[in-house]
Each structure stands twice: as structure tokens, then as C-alpha cells.
Amino acid sequence: MSKPRLDQLLAGYADGDAISRQAVILRDVFRRWGYASEIFADPAHVSPTLRADCRPLTDYAGGPSDVALHHYGLASRASEVFTASKARKILIYHNITPPEFFRGFDDALAAQLAAARAQVAEVARRCETAWAVSQFDAEDLAALGAPNARVFPLVFSAAPLELTPDADLTARLTAPLTTLLCVGRLAPNKRIEDLIQAYAFYHFRINPFSRLLLVGSDRSCPRYFTMLKMLVGDLDVPNVCFEGFASPAGLVSYYKLADLFVSCSAHEGYGAPLVEAMFHGVPVIARAAGGTAEALGGAGVLYDDMQPAELAELFHRVASERTMRDQICAAQQRRIRDVLARPVEQELRALLTDFLPS
Q1: Are residues 85 and 10 in the same domain?
Q2: How far apart are CA 241 and CA 314, in angstroms?
């Protein structure tokens, strides 16, 4: 009897995308085990640099003995191809941002998100099992009508973070300034406006020799990005740098330049950049929301319900009090050691016991 294929179906496949990185890690594991494995995605949503690394959805044709894994974060053509497949099906749930965050900024996207949340239970019912990348996501999936998801946390790979930093970017940004860093899409659920307001207080009242680097695509929600730019102008706060999308080498540079990593996100399924920042030894301050606490694993600094002045004072203490900073960084390094020692392949084999030949 021939081995089953282990293929993955994605709505899109992009540089710097956490779901895409997860798919690559799983594909590499499956191939290492000796299984044929490909990533299939909608060509309209594939980065030009990755077109040779995946196949179009129209090429997918899984048979009854094959296994199809679908990374679900938005209703898409990939979901349709997945549910119509004859293969045995596994849903991997990456969370769907609640649509209310986008209403007023992008009503069309809000409608897409609402549809995705409404459809996920039906997609899950057509699968033999569902995995969630955090306990928070498993509970969210249950609330949407698909209980009993098994938790398979987002897999961390250090390889992209061990690249040589971008020399030109490092030279451009090297300066005697306390650097606050935030990495992620500029989207309403990230609550970047909260970070900007706290930074304004920090810069004007506590440390004028400071800057805020916002690294991430501004295409996720153009109206929200415009609002953020207007807020910076209204506050007349300097050194707020919208850096846009970062290359892998550029991202390493940003982490190495940072004194603090801050996430004000009000909704996170997990939060991969939190782990990346800890890997680089950057103290992390994050809102206690969604799967953030799971990503931090008891490390970093979690906050909730802070006013801008209070959050600014927290920035100051973590950045300037050496003993506190050393304790935070030590706890983060313990967390990273645990993350790197995680038996990922053992977990995968256990999850796939009923799908692979013994």
C-alpha cells in the first residue's frame, strides 16, 4: 500500500506570514518522514518570491487515502477546495479576528470575517479532527460551534531570526535613542493607536531621546493606517516611524535595534512576534489579550486596563531599571529554551496517529 500524501491548503502564501511559516515547517517535517507533501494556495494571494515554492489550488487532487490539512483564518477558495476534496481532512484553526474591529474601517473585510466565523463550524464538521494553534483558539472554535479541537501551538523556528542583519537598515537607524518596537500588521485589532498615545506621553514627559518603530504592512486596512498617521500629526509627536513590511534580514535588524518590544493588541490568536522578540533578548510588554499569555509562557510583562500615562511609566521602568530588566530577560530566555526544546515531531506523530500507516 502506497503512502498517503500530506498536503496543505492555504488561502494565501506570503513572506513574513505566520501561517505560511507554519505550513513550511510542517511540509519539511512531512518530507523528512518520507511523505510527498506540497503547499497549495490561491495564486492571486501568493508573494512573487514564493510562487515557485507552492502550487496553485487548481492543481490539488487529493485521494481517499491522502491527508489534507487546511490552515483556516479566513473564508476563501482554499476552504471550498478543501471541503470538496476526497482526502481525509484536518482543520488547523489560526483564529479569525472578530469583525467588529474592522467595521467603519473596512466594512467589506468585516463582512468577510463575519462570514468566516459563521462558516468555520461547518468546515470543521466535514473534517475528522481540528487543531488549534493555542488554547484560546480552541475555546474560540468551540464558541463558534466546533468543540473538541486539539491544541497544537504555533511552531517556532529560529532559522529566519539567525540571518545576518540588513547592514543598510542598521546603519540608517543606529542612533542614541531608546527604541520601542512593534511588529505586525497595522490592523485595528492591534490597537496601534493605544501604543502611539502611550509613546507620546513617554517621549514628551519621560524620555525625549526615544523613538517608536512600527514594522508591518500598511495594506491590511488603509483607512486605519490613515487614522494612525493623522493621530501622530494631531499629537505632533516626533520619531514615530512607520517602517512598512520588513525583509527577513531587515526584521533581524529591527529586533537587534530594539530596547523594548510592545504589543497593545486587543485580539491575538497567539502572537509569533512576541516569541521572536524574546529570542533576540528584547524585553516584551504586551496586553493580556487572547493567546498572548500562551505565547509568553509566563515570561515578559503582561498588562491590562492601563491609561497612556501608566503604560508610558511601565515603558520607562522596564527600559531603565536594570534589575527589573535583567529579571524579565532571564525569564524570557528560560521560555525560549523551552520553546526550542519542544518535541514538535513527537507531537505531530501523536496527532497523526490515526492518519498514518503504523
Answers
A1: yes
A2: 21
